[in-house]
Amino acid sequence: MRDSGDHKSKKLERYFSFLNNVMKNNVWAGIVLAYRFCYNFCYLIGAYTIRYFRIFAKKIIRGLKPAVRFLCRAADYIILRRLRGFADSVAAETRRFLQGFPIAGRLVKSSFKQGFASFLKTVFAVIPRRAVKRHRRSLSTICNLAAPAAAVMVLVMTINLWGGMTFALAVEYDGKKLGYITDESVYDTAANMVNDRVINTDNSFEVKRVPKLTIAVVSKSEIIDENAVCDKILENSNDSICQASGLYIDNKFECAVQSRQELDALLDSILKSYCKGGPNERAEFVQNVEIVDGLYPISSIVSIEETRAKLTEQTVVDKYYTIVKGDSPLLIAAKTDMSLEQLRALNPDFDKKIFPDVKVLIQKAQPYLRVQVVRTTEYKEAIPYKTVQVKDDRHYKGYTAVKTNGVNGEQRVKAEITYIDGIEQSRKILEKKVLKKPVDKVVIVGSKSIDNRITAAGDGISTGRFTWPLPSCRSISSPYGWRWRQFHAGIDISGNGVYGKPVVAADGGVVAEINTAGWGSGYGKYIIIDHGGGYRTVYAHLSAVNVRAGQKVSKGQFIGRVGNTGQSYGAHLHFEIRINGKSVNPVSYLR
After folding, report:
1. What is the pLDDT of residues 484-510, one digit of tens each?
2. pTM, entire model
3. Most buried among 24, 273, 324, 515, using CB within 10 Å?
């Protein structure tokens, strides 16, 4: 054995030495030999693996054959033989069943000939009895097989039924059963949810906090949660609550209406009643108006007609002031705590109706729901001319003469006007475009100083044109004409702080008459100046007379001071122009 091993090792050494020499001499020949060696090696490994696997498989099959034969015999004994027997029984019973049809047919045919009663007896009694007797074995077998299956089914159903049952509380509310809950906290939560859903404006709706609860065994599927309990409480409360739309004004609940559509239409109609239908206007409520849909107590539901009456009723009525004797526009404004602009806006021709017992509107009625309309409009308006005064020291202060008459201009105005309840509240000018420029009025005014003492004689020259007698004030508080059922022969000039202001001669002339006593006459202290040609002027209710009778005065010369003497109800200057002893309206002659 040792010599054989040495021989093999020497053979291998010679083989590898040969390979080594070949590779040294020729590289490509070495590569080919190496490839052939690897291929032969892999082929031998695969061949031996397949051979041994086949040998192993044959041994396993040879060892399992007895076990397989045993299992086949056992299956044939336990199952197949019984199945074959059952199949044979079913086949035999099927043949008997089919053979019974001809027999039944003959019985039916024979009974039909004997009469209808016999036919019915045969069909419903004889044939079924014979069929049961003929197939009693099969029926018995079927019952024996079905009974265990039915018992198993009943057991499964019972287990399933009791497995789905549990203990619960039956809830009864106002005599009506709501359902089953797990515990009392479910009902408490549902009651709170009901209170949250119902808008209880008048506190007329109340949820019972202590319902009737009883223990019961029910299916788990019958148990309801707090949401379902809440819905059922609301369903059972249909006689006290309903779905409606609530109207809130300035976050205050006013009423609820069942139809949201009717409420929206009502509010739209109120807005449209203040609109003119123009494209450049928008209307909105002055108050904050909000509609909230929800569940409301029936006691808070009103009709749409009642809602309309409530929203359009007058919460502030018209208020008037009755003029009394001695009132003037300024005095009325002071008594009513209003401005002249406000009085004139509420009362057209206000200044022409200052008579006793005449009512003046000082507060306009307002509806409950007020509407603001913003309207953009374009209109033309006059551009007032400016008055430019040119001083002339040749005349006394208070002397005026028009050199150039003023002419108003014209412009197109685009404005955004805001109305509340149909009365203009503000006007925002958006754009102005001048169409015609105004022409300034040039007035010559005297600049010669007036002596506050008793003045020296003037020139006494009458110009034939009268100037304003009270330079510091140009407001007429009482016009010429009838007032308080008496004729007012002149005009009253008055204003704030007018007492003691200088009075000037309306034109040059001679002082015809004075009264310095302040009593004994309705005029109080007064001055009458004769201007010639039948013209005379009267200055009454003075506080001081600064001229003498027979004295010459110039136009615009200082002659006295405003007072409150005689029959006077406030500081003012009563001024008259008389022509041949008859009074005329001074406004027509003054410049």
Report:
1. 778 888 999 998 889 999 999 999 999
2. 0.46
3. 515
